Amino acid sequence: MEDRQQHTEEEIRERLNQSGLKATPQRVLVYEAMCALGHASADAVFQHLGAGQGKMTLATVYNVLESMTQAGLLIRRPSFSSKMYFDVHTDAHCHIYQQDTSEISDFCDETLQRNVEARIRAQLPAGLQLDRVEIQILCHSQSHEA
Amino acid sequence: MEDRQQHTEEEIRERLNQSGLKATPQRVLVYEAMCALGHASADAVFQHLGAGQGKMTLATVYNVLESMTQAGLLIRRPSFSSKMYFDVHTDAHCHIYQQDTSEISDFCDETLQRNVEARIRAQLPAGLQLDRVEIQILCHSQSHEA
DNA sequence: AAATGTATTTATAATAATTCAAAATAACAA
DNA sequence: TTGTTATTTTGAATTATTATAAATACATTT
Fold first, then answer.
1. Percent of chain A as helix, strand, coil, to the nearest 5
2. Domain B9-87 has CATH 1.10.10.10
3. Tell me: domain A94-144, CATH 3.30.1490, correct?
């Protein structure tokens, strides 16, 4: 659904290596899962894998997500629940949180993103270096009126 | 520290009533704590209260935060940890997340906020009603280079 | 003031999400 | 192969949150 540009196992191995991570089977599987899911919680990745044959511990999923995040292959997404979410799309982009259905979807507007970043960078307190700007759009469907 | 406009017990009682909540002592205490803290997790509120004499269960803190959120007195803040945060400032405003120290601070730019909202509203998929836009600024101090 | 019904709080147990520690396994280099 | 290090597994430990049932407080009517 997301931007599906052929993520062959070879490509993934290579990407892992480039980021300084050994391409273990578990890491490849988790990365594949993340590509398929776009953004997901550790548990969601675990579920997704459970369906396949690759047996893997939940702790490993956490480990792998953590090391990939360190390596810059994933980023943590802020969430409104008490659950942590990761995203394969490491470039900044907005997210729509539909509060009545709990659905999360992407919302891309590169111009907006660039403008906001520029403006914020200009006003950032001295000594701080901007990493990225996350924009979340909270909404609900018109039928479900608040 | 935040915007400290006299939050007397009477004012709080009144605000609770206006929002359709009975002004129980626990609710008053939690709201006072939230005013003092600005944004906080349930646990942080509990700690803050523990210091005082008002004995209250952690479960009550959760209950109260939840009902205040329902009533519109608080909002949930997205977080990068697996912990839920609440905020007394229900008007939309940006937050700075300093990743090396985990500090969170407010960043106000009403013009930016308005512009972003307008632009997003214009592009929102049909059938969706915009509730609010949250902007998070991730950064680190220049000394701690990534 | 007593009685009633409802809302709220408490205490505690249960669940969910995450992390930790130690042993087992795999990968790698000498 | 052997030794070394990184990774995964298992399972327990923590942390965060929610659920349940009993106790208490509140508000209203009598």
1. 40, 25, 35
2. yes
3. yes
